[in-house]
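note to self — DONT lose this again. spent like an hour looking for the file last time. sequence + predicted structure for the chain T wanted, 724 res
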Amino acid sequence: MRIQGIIVLVVLFMSAVSAFAERRGFAIVVDPRSYREAKTEIEAYAQTVEKQGLKVYLIEDVWGVPDSIQLKLKSLYQQKEAPIEGCVFIGDIPVPMILNAQHMTTAFKVNQATKNWQRLGVPSDRFYDDFHLKFNFVQKDEKNPLFHYYSLDASSAQTLAPSIYSGRIKPLSDGQGSKYEHLRKYLRKVVRLKHEVNPVDQILYFSGHGYISESPVARIDEKIALLENFPWLKTQKNGIQYMDHKRDDFIKYRLMSEIQRNDLDVAILHHHGAPEKEYLNSYPEPKNAQQEIESAKLFMRTKIRSAVERGTPVDTAKNYYHRNYGVPLSWFDNVMTPGMIAADSILAYNLDLHLEDFGQYHPNARLVMLDACFNGSFHLDRYLAGGYLFNSGNTVVVVANSVNALQDKWADRHVGLLGLGMRAGHLVQYNPYLESHLLGDPTFCFTSTAGMAVNVNDALAVGNVKFWKKQLNSLYPALQLMAVERLADWGELNADELLNIFRTNPNYIVRLGCMLELANYGGEQFIRCLDLAVDDSYELISRMAITRVGKNGDPRLIPAVIRVAIENNTGERIAFNLNGAMTLFDRELLLEEFNRQFKDCDFYFDKEKIREKIEKSIRYNAGRWDEEVEKIYSGKGTKKEQLSAIRILRNNPLHTKVPQLLDFVKICKDEEVQLALVEAFGWFNLSHTAPQICEVMKRLKDNAIYPDRVRQEALKTVNRLSKR
């Protein structure tokens, strides 16, 4: 095979491929240096992809510009013969850094006025794989030539719906060997493993310390959902195993041992993260009085060292804690000696899994999902997900996040289709976030265990309504879920039908899918669904429902809020989300409903004490943001206070203040404040006030008296608030 000219599309033909499969293709985009260094391995990889039934287009990136790559991919997608269903970027392919699209992330919130460009942008290949989006070029990074900054256009679609799947094969630059040798070894591994007959029959899921992981009921219910996704594992020996960080003081070694099992297929890891670290344990929990003292000493030593790093003299720091907290000065003996610092550092190091550990650690789970912040920072030379891919272990696919991410989401949506032979790239395509990426080979797939007459990848590629309607009654809940989503997207399921499926379907993952689809419709059916969902026996449905109750804010949902508030055994994360939902409702209406419902709660052991506790929670949470938000329009706040209050609205859509805020935005004379408020209204996408907001935004965007920036942002907000 020879590459020549500006671009050459190399088509590798299979001798025996079905006519159906020949109609789809796959693009390999590689930089010139990587192609020269790994030509043999790249072409061998292309041949194995062709054996999967895909027509391969090999594209040498001679432009080094994201727009040119996107244009070529889009043309291959739109062509009549063998349009691509996905692509992979090999080597040093330009990284789009996306601005002004934070609503497409789960958690990324950065002040757009910051001058730190790298911190401001989200590294995202949605630029390449979602052809519904429209971007405007801003600038190229002076220090990092691969970084290209783009702003989401106001006229663009404002939700993600990738047209194709994508993946990145970007080797680590670790200073210990050629990154091109890493690339060659990885591709040889992929080629070898693609020839395996390997069904999904061994799954591990893990929870590290903090956040969702501290809710046992969330992890118990996760196993139930995994068994729905992989029903054949109900009778499989060790089919689905769970590991909790509390199992050991230093869980990393047990976790690494488990993931090094060569028979492990999928590992789903919930924890916090950094670009080169998985946070697994907190400090060991003391088991006796002496350990309690040693734990306190360790804590104090960390405080002293932090103070010293900030410039405080060590004796001053010691005396501060001695005087204010009664800590014996003897606790600080040797606090700054090299030996003590080293011992404490080793202890802290062993709590977490580091990129450096992969020199001795060889993970074999074929697919790993990292539900953490920054583990998938592929734009950096060193990123933790790369540790899983570029070593002698058998891991070939990692799903991870390029920036910070929210754990309170449906992280493993559609994972069950992997067991039916779905290509890994579809995992991100059908559960997309701006920061979520597949790293490794997106065409990798397990051997289907179902013996299905129809290939699931073929079914996903073609909009066959008849086929997907049949799947509503499939034996496999994962197929039912995909059927619900596809048919709803095509307008083949209306809101009443979705609500009926939610009410009657016995499978948790299917009902969760119905609830999330109904959010796109809004209206009466969505309200009725949420009213049912807050009491659901599946923790994730209940947790996500109570969050959406708050985001919707319809007063008709107040009885549901109070039902959850007075339940005796509400899950930890549901109770946490409930407090947030309360802030978005009228306090007096909540208290009135509470008094009505609570009088019949005779099951409480100490009813009056509980009454006081719940009432206190309502009074504290409801109306929590009222005073701050009123600074926006009351004339009592400074400009700085106004902007700060507006930022509150992004995570807390205060429905009760919408009329006042809309009146103010129309007359506001400060362009910066007006612009910020118009942008904040875009976060009211689930609010029952969205139609009201949308009408005002339409008038703003069409009225020439308003500044152009404000009108453009109003257009973006209209697009964000538009429902199906």
